Each structure stands twice: as C-alpha cells, then as structure tokens.
Amino acid sequence: LRGGKGQLYEGGIRIPYLLQWPRKVKPGQVNRHPVISTDLAPTMLAAAGISAAGATFDGVDLLTQSQADRTFFWRYGRNVALREGRWKLVKQGAGAFQLFDLERDGNETKDLAAAEPETAQRLEAKLNQLNQQMAAPLW
C-alpha cells in the first residue's frame, strides 16, 4: 500500500485488526468494513456489560452496530484525510487534496480530484467541518 508511518495514505494507517473472544466471536469471521481505534472503548465497555449511558464516544460498539457507511477523519500535523465509503480524500502538508476510489484503487495511485470535482468538494467541506471542531495543532 502507498505511504508509511506519519502519512495518511493507506500504507500509513491501515493495519490488520484481530479479535478473539471464545463463545462470542466465531473463529474465521472476516469483517471487511474499516474500524478505527476509537471503537475500542465503546466495544470493550459493551463487552464487559458496563453501561456507557450519557457518555459520548467518537467510535462505535463493533459488536452491535453496523460499520457500513461510516465517515473516518484523520489529522496528523498538517496532514489530513477523510474516508467516506469507497472515497478517500487526502492532503499531505501543503500539497493539494487528492481523491481516491479505494474500491478500484486500494493503492491510491490514481488521483480522481479533477475527474470527480463534486465528490472532492463535498468531502473537502466535510473534512474542513470536522477539522474545525478539533484543537489547533501545536506545531
């Protein structure tokens, strides 16, 4: 996959996620939907039978909620990315936004920002909205 540590291309953020829970999770199950580390807290609380009523989490309980049709947002310094379904928008540093179709191009080799301007603009607006909710980076 393209990229590495410190980059928001798939090679920098995609890692295998394994879960073992005898008598609850059947061996050999494969979930092809992406998950994110913020899903761990609500999932583990639910697995332990601890109510999180009133708590707000960025993640979801992976045992009970659908992982389809989620939006993922990353920010690492000046690098930002947003994934929604098959589409991923990436900006590395001062570079331009790049748009990738992960279903057709999992290695992120073909930038579709010019070919899909409406999708790129919609995702950029969503990314900017999420980014404004975050504290400013310290660097």
Write a brief caption for the model:
By secondary structure, the chain is an alpha+beta fold. It is 20% helix and 15% strand. It has three helices and four strands.
Commentary on this structure:
The protein is α+β, with helices and mostly antiparallel strands and 139 residues long. Helices cover 20% and strands 15% of the residues. The chain is built from 3 helices and 4 strands. The protein has helices at 10-13, 40-47, 117-132; strands at 71-76, 79-84, 87-91, 98-101. It has a 4-stranded antiparallel β-sheet, covered by helices on one side. Strand 1 (71-76) and strand 2 form a beta hairpin. The longest helix is centred in the C-terminal third of the chain and has 16 residues, at 117-132. The radius of gyration is 17 Å and the shape is globular. The two termini are 28 Å apart. The model has no long low-confidence stretch (mean pLDDT 90).
| Quantity of strands, as a count | 4
Largest beta sheet: strand ordering? 1-2-3-4
Radius of gyration: 17 Å
* Shape summary: globular
Describe the main β-sheet briefly.
Answer: 4 strands, antiparallel
Residue-averaged pLDDT = 90
Termini distance? Answer: 28 Å
Helix content: 10-25%
> Count of helical segments?
3
Q: What is the N-to-C succession of helices and strands?
A: HHEEEEH
- Unreliable parts: none
Strand content: 15-25%
What class would the helix/strand composition place it in? alpha+beta
